[in-house]
Design goal:
Keywords: Aminopeptidase, Hydrolase, Metal-binding, Metalloprotease, Protease, Zinc. It comes from Limoniibacter endophyticus. Its EC number is 3.4.11.2. Its cofactor is Zn(2+). 41% of the residues lie in helices and 22% in strands. It is of the alpha+beta class and 874 residues long. The chain folds into five domains: 192 residues, Sandwich (Immunoglobulin-like); 133 residues, Neutral Protease, domain 2, CATH 1.10.390; 101 residues, Immunoglobulin-like (Sandwich), CATH 2.60.40.1840; 142 residues, Alpha Horseshoe (Zincin-like fold), CATH 1.25.50; 132 residues, Zincin-like fold (Alpha Horseshoe), CATH 1.25.50.10. Helix 14 crosses helix 16, helix 24 runs antiparallel to helix 25 and helix 24 packs parallel to helix 26. The longest helix is centred in the middle third of the chain and has 25 residues. 51% of the residues are buried. The protein binds diaminopropanoic acid (DPP) and zinc ion (ZN). Zinc ion binds next to helix 3. The site of diaminopropanoic acid has 9 residues, from strand 20 and helix 2.
């Protein structure tokens, strides 16, 4: 396949200041008439041909300045259009008519049908499946769109920008026109047509401009969009307050569709969402769903400035909009909820998903310089690590200079297709700082690792912190350049207070600027031996190897003023206990856990000065995947599972009485609210429910909770305990069928039921998943269905997916192959589940390798999938 390289970038020969599109919608034969105003970028240059991208298009007609082109004047294939005879004028108008088949489009890129409605997805390269175009992000155009369709099937006709004329066409057809005054790249184009319900609201911007808001959903689901609407209004306000970003059109529309490859899409003025991230009510959505809806509504809205007003010059710059917008949505959620809890959750996600990516065969820089298939670069590295890099810029600059840099960036590049260099330069100029070494974070892949050692000299009153950097994954150590790593820290006294000291060079307030492969920092004026708290708030996305003993960690867990590091200390204690237990399990020794760890869990649960959501996170041991990553090699998922469940059972038994009390004390009286306070209490109670059930050794308590639960959060939590801890109990069967019965006509909710069953530990789950694939609610064509069942099975069920007999891999390969026939993006996304195959123990490793090799060798394997498989095997 073709390899795309950053160094090959060059601007297009032509500009397209205006694009007019007419859609005559039909399920099988939609006609698209595109009229492009083309302008030579350099009228003096001798450009004699024009090449536009296409993908699977049927060309019906083509003309320039109103005159049909002769057959020898152009060449049209399914994937490109070359016009060989061009007018010599500096500008001309090109009209292209193409025919497309939305009904047959199951790749869900371009124009397709979902539940009978028409919708589009154009990022990254879907617009070329609609018409021939410069389908690249640096060609910005003003779009005018006219949609014609059956009035009965498609009363709603939407596109980007502001609404224009609409009316009847006779014959049961009607039309609507839309105009988007903001020049945009083709990937932000959108069209929706169909029969949809709607909720409406409005927002007045800071400068007094009224905006009509609407969310379109399937009829009958309107009420379930109210929370999303509320989140949208809060997002609009927040972006004004925190970043000074105001909305810029008369309308803002959101449409929820049920077949969607991504979470959502930020098309200008017309966001299209996976319905999973719009629909919510007490009975059908969990607290986690609500939080995700809030985050993603915010994310897509925030793209209006960081992504749409300022877009990317090329796809290598994807993190320019994604990393920054993730950072913005994280800040939004932190402001709406609990900042400390949000940060812990972010770090858990980063470690569970981004670290293994960066440390394995799919590792790539935040700003990659080569790709084969851009769809495969919508990764946790681009998004989450990209966000961490922006966060580090803020840490280095401080709030004020950071905001000044953002202001400069937004002002300087409004209307541009920009680069990472432009972004960094804005901060350099605003803060009068040199960020060239820092910029390495964009270019050097692998998870940085910082090893520290400390020494205290009582007589001199000095505390020496020695730091050394290396990395897991990425370039070899001898070719790595030192990163500038901002480490927020504190030196604590025995009473938990922050000690005063004289700081060495390279320490700026609470930030150590660690910028060499190895360096010592000597702090003076310390009368007592300080207790170090470092990388507070996870100020740098690194693996930290410290020299802290158990007493040190227990101290931080109890006294650190930084909530994140309190959690981190607890997490590290649990991780050490688990690693030790995995070792015991492998040698056949009995598993035991330090009593002080067990009692610590009780103390945390009982500590009312900590918010319940924090306690819930602190009481949750590192996941099986985290433990596997931490161990790093020769992984036996069964041993990991055994260690983790034994720890949980021990914690439950050791603290049953205390847990029972806290469980009762955190009951919620009064009506349901999806807010931080209530969801925190529910998460604490549900973590305790699991512990108590393990201590009970039976399903009674969870069954009781499932029957009494008035909301989906509690119901799902109880059902998970039943299914995961007592899969064969009658109570589990009863509750699973009750759930199935209650939601049999709501596949989106039934996804949760699928997911719970797909994650039941043990190799018998392979057969269960096979059976569920025949369930009437399952469909290989719907990404949400496939991800709920197969995605969950392969990415969140270590023991079943990695069954020693290879049956999990066999199932996986079948499904990925099947998905690849219709939806390569979905297949490629599923396939990353095997990226860490090299760290498995030898028997599983060989089976995994074989599975990958067979899939890669299959004739007809898509570019998307073979790109992932080849890199994984390389
Ligand atoms: N829709 C995806 C996102 O917002 C890609 N832009 O991240
Ligand atoms: Zn995004």
């Amino acid at each position: 396949g073709t390899v795309f390289r950053l160094q090959d970038y060059r601007p297009s020969d032509f500009l397209i200041p205006e694009t007019r599109l007419i859609f005559r919608l039909d399920p099988r034969e939609t006609l698209v008439t595109a009229t492009l105003s083309l302008e030579r970028r350099d009228p003096a240059a001798d450009v004699t041909a024009l090449k536009l991208a296409g993908d699977g298009l049927v060309l019906k007609s083509i003309s320039i300045d109103g005159k049909a082109l002769a057959a020898d004047a152009y060449e049209a294939t399914a994937d490109c259009l070359i016009i060989k005879q061009l007018p010599s004028s500096s500008s001309f108008s090109l009209t292209i008519e193409t025919e497309i088949d939305p009904e047959e489009n199951k790749a869900l890129m371009g124009l397709y049908r979902s539940s009978g409605n028409y919708c589009t997805q154009c990022e990254a390269e879907g617009f070329r499946r609609i018409t021939y175009f410069y389908d690249r992000p640096d060609v910005l155009s003003i779009y005018s769109v006219r949609i014609e369709a059956d009035r009965a099937n498609c009363p709603v006709l939407l596109s980007n920008g502001n609404p224009g004329a609409s009316g009847d066409l006779g014959d049961g057809r009607h039309f609507a026109e839309w105009h988007d005054p903001h020049p945009k790249p083709s990937y932000l184009f959108a069209l929706v047509a169909g029969d949809l319900g709607v909720i409406r609201d409005h927002f007045t911007t800071a400068s007094g401009k009224p905006v009509d808001l609407a969310i379109y959903v399937e009829h009958g689901k309107e009420e379930r969009a109210l929370y999303a609407m509320d989140a949208l209004k809060r997002s609009m306000k927040w972006d004004e307050d925190v970043f000074g970003c105001e909305y810029d059109l008369d309308v803002f529309n959101i449409v929820a569709v049920s077949d969607f490859n991504m979470g959502a899409m930020e098309n200008k003025g017309l966001n299209v969402f996976n319905d999973k991230y719009v629909l919510a009510d007490e009975k059908t959505a969990t607290d986690v769903d609500y939080a995700l809806i809030e985050a993603i509504i915010g994310h897509e809205y925030f793209h209006n400035w960081t992504g749409n007003r300022i877009t990317c010059r090329d796809w290598f710059q994807l993190c320019l909009k994604e990393g920054l917008t993730v950072f913005r949505d994280h800040e939004f959620s932190a402001d709406q909820r609990s900042r400390a809890v949000k940060r812990i959750a972010e770090v858990r996600t980063l470690r569970t998903h981004q670290f293994p990516e960066d440390q394995g065969p799919l590792s790539h820089p935040v700003r990659p310089d080569v790709y084969k298939e851009i769809n495969n670069f919508y990764t946790t590295t681009i998004y989450e690590k990209g966000s961490e890099v922006v966060r580090m810029i803020r840490t280095l600059l401080g709030e004020q200079a950071f905001r000044a840099g953002m202001d400069l960036y937004l002002k300087r590049h409004d209307g541009d297709a920009a680069t990472i260099e432009d972004f960094v330069k804005s901060f350099e100029d605003a803060a009068k700082l040199d960020l060239s070494q820092f910029s390495l974070w964009y270019h050097q892949n692998g998870t940085p690792k910082v090893t520290l050692s400390t020494a205290y000299d009582q007589t001199a009153g000095t505390f020496t912190l020695h730091l050394k950097q290396s990395a897991i994954g990425g370039p070899a150590l001898n070719t790595r350049k030192p990163l500038l790593i901002p480490l927020v820290f504190g030196l604590l006294g025995r009473d938990g207070s922050e000690l005063a000291y004289t700081a060495p060079q390279g320490v700026d307030g609470s930030v150590i600027r660690f910028d060499a492969m190895e360096k010592s920092f000597v702090f003076e004026g310390l009368k007592e031996k300080p207790i170090l708290s470092i990388n507070r708030g996870f100020s740098a996305p690194i693996v930290l190897k410290d020299d802290f003993d158990v007493a040190h960690r227990l101290f931080l867990a109890a006294h650190d003023s930084d909530a994140f590091n309190r959690w981190e200390a607890i997490n590290a204690l649990l991780m050490d206990a688990l690693k030790n237990a995995v070792g015991q399990e492998k040698t056949g020794a009995a598993l035991d856990f330090p009593p002080q760890i067990l009692s610590l869990m009780g103390k945390i649960a009982e500590n009312d000065s900590l918010e319940p959501a924090f306690r819930a996170l602190a009481l949750t041991p590192p996941s099986e995947a985290d433990l596997a990553r931490e161990i790093g090699e020769n992984i036996d998922p069964d041993a990991i599972y055994a260690a983790r469940i034994a720890l949980q059972a021990s914690i439950g038994k050791a603290n049953a009485a205390a847990f029972e009390k806290i469980y009762a004390a955190n009951a919620i009286n009064g009506p349901f609210a999806p807010d931080a306070e209530q969801s925190g209490k529910r998460s604490l109670r549900n973590v305790l429910l699991d512990y108590l059930s393990l201590a009970d050794g039976g399903p009674g308590r969870a069954h009781q909770s499932a029957m009494q639960s008035g909301n989906m959060t509690d119901r799902i939590a109880a059902l998970s305990v039943l299914a995961h801890r007592f899969p064969d109990a009658d109570e589990t069967r009863t509750e699973l069928s009750r759930f199935e019965h209650d939601f049999r006509s709501d596949p989106l909710v039934l996804d949760k039921w699928m997911q719970i069953q797909a994650t039941i530990p043990g190799e018998q789950t392979v057969a269960r998943v096979r059976a569920l694939m025949n369930h009437p609610a399952f469909s290989m064509l719907n990404p949400n269905r496939v991800r709920a069942l197969i995605g969950a099975f392969s990415s969140a069920n270590q023991t079943a997916f990695h069954s020693a007999d290879g049956s999990g891999y066999t199932l996986f390969a079948e499904v990925v192959t099947k998905a690849d026939e219709r939806n390569p993006q979905l297949a490629a996304r599923l396939a990353i589940a095997l990226r860490s195959w090299r760290s498995l123990e030898p028997v599983r490793r060989e089976k995994a390798r074989e599975t990958l090799a067979v899939m890669a060798a299959r004739e007809g394997c898509s570019i998307d999938l073979s790109d992932i498989l080849e890199r994984t095997l390389a």
